[in-house]
Predict the structure of Anti-sigma factor antagonist.
Amino acid sequence: MKITQHSSENTLTLSLDGELDASSSVLLDSELNAPEILNYTKVLIDCQRLNYISSAGLGVFISHLQRFQDANVKLVFFNMQEKVHNVFEILGLDSLLTIVPSQAEAAAV
């Protein structure tokens, strides 16, 4: 798993590349746990190259959700592959998290 950061004004975009499983979820957790992430109003998660997500990977996002909400930071997923999106849907996370098709829509949320 490779995570690339790109920031502009009040938005941080994290691009995920590879498989988000138990071992790589530790890296993602440390990225999302960084104190400076709460300085942004939006954190966009680019899932275009995310090929797989395990329950541990999902757990990382869920564990940070309340912290982001308390700090008024919007967490938005975009460019999600169908097989990854299906995992979110099966678990009902598509109603808990904001998932949009494109980066333009993510930026507009």
About this structure: The two ends are 27 Å apart (CA to CA).
